[in-house]
Amino acid sequence: MKNLAFILAALVLMVGCEAVKFKPMALYDHYEEPPPESTLPQIIYEDAVGTMWSSLESCGKFEVTKDVAYSGNSSIRISWDKGKGCDWIGFGNSFSNWGAADMSEARTHKALSFFARTQTKTAGGIPIVACLEDFGGGGSYYFLDAKKYLNGLYLDTTWKQMIIPLWDFPVNEEEVDIYSIKQMKFQLEGAGSYYLDDIKIIEYSREEYAQMRADVEAMKPKGSPNQVVYREGKFLDDVWGYENNSCQTLEERDGNGKMIYWKYNADGCDWAKWGINWNDWYQANFRGICENSTLSFKYKTASTCQFKVFLDDYEYHGTEIFSSKTAVPEWKEVRLPMKEWKLKEKGFALDQIKQFRFEGVGSGEVYLDEIKITGS
Q1: Strands 53-55 and 239-240
Q2: Torsion angle of alpha carbons 162, 168, 173, 179, nearest 10°?
Q3: Which of 24, 28, 259, 346 has its CA 20 to 30 A from that of 12?
Q4: Distances from the Cα of 206 to the Cα of 60, 167, 297, angstroms
Q5: From residue 213, how far is each of 223, 264, 339 by CA, in Å?
Q6: The whole model's pTM is what?
Q7: Over the stretch 61-107, which tens digit does the pLDDT of each residue have?
Q8: Which tens digit of pLDDT belongs to each residue from 201-227?
Q9: What is the mean pLDDT of residues 44-51?
């Protein structure tokens, strides 16, 4: 009977529960979508906003100063000399309030931007390595090369902007967790003394970078459209390869004025060649003149012979610009439009031209004179 009573009570309870209706309840009354990351300012330093750390030990000094500023009322004044015996010196700060920043997609359209100036002298760059550091201490390290990222030709006592695209920072999954970036860290190398201001992460496109580099290229000084390559009387200063050997004889001779005499036998010989520089072996500048300038020279040969002329820069680019294969018993002028060399397309550093290089093929005897560049 007890079991029967228990069963009847359970049935009554189940029927009662069936009649009860529960009101649905939301876990949250209101949910506000957080603002997109791109709308939040990612500031590393801006007029003393934010916290920064520095570790220069006895090798330098890091301070916020009101002496000068690009914007606002203050900037960072920093001086260092790592050669004083410090293993590591640098500074850094979060750009996401010390929260984890996912830069995996953002790095494709953002850049590190800051303004810099020297304290006294002119400098070609700033010896700093930047690092996107994750919470595990790993990082993507990248040298801030002024030749690629400075909006100007050099650093001096005026403010200039450096913009380093984040897509140039190397990302190795074994070295950095790009999905959880803690801060931007700056590692100091060498020595220097600078002011820094407005350090931040900005929106940036590849088109903007290309335009900035085009603007910097336009700032660079252009070469002279008229340059004398063979300077009479400076043969020994301007030429290499004149030390006579079993492959060739190369010398300056008197005639109707001075001229270059070159006799060579390249068969089985590696040294039937020579080069000439007309700027005391400093870089010659072809920037801005290639489209409207011409290399010209006069030559004659004692018999049928073949020789080639090349152009080289100091970045190890070289290209053939002329080849002679026939006898030229009387003086002949050769005119070679420089635009046909397509130096820019071949990657030449147009302000770092090294030499014209002559190489003999087989055997021959050649006279050369009036080697020069002239504008049209």
Answers
A1: unpaired
A2: 60
A3: 24
A4: 36, 10, 43
A5: 19, 45, 22
A6: 0.70
A7: 999 999 999 999 999 999 999 999 999 999 999 999 999 999 999 99
A8: 999 999 999 999 999 989 999 999 999
A9: 79
Cβ atoms of 350 and 333 closer than 8 Å? no
The alpha carbon of 180 is separated from its chain's Cα centroid by a whole number of angstroms, namely: 27
Q: Is 178 exposed, middle or buried (0-12, 13-18, 19+ CB in 10 A)?
A: buried
Percent of the chain with pLDDT over 90: 82
- Per-residue buried b or exposed e for 334-353, using 16+ beta carbons within 10 Å of the residue's own CB: eebebeebebeeeebbbbbb
From the list 31, 207, 58, 197, the residue with the least C-alpha distance to 114 is 197
CA distance 331 to 313: 29
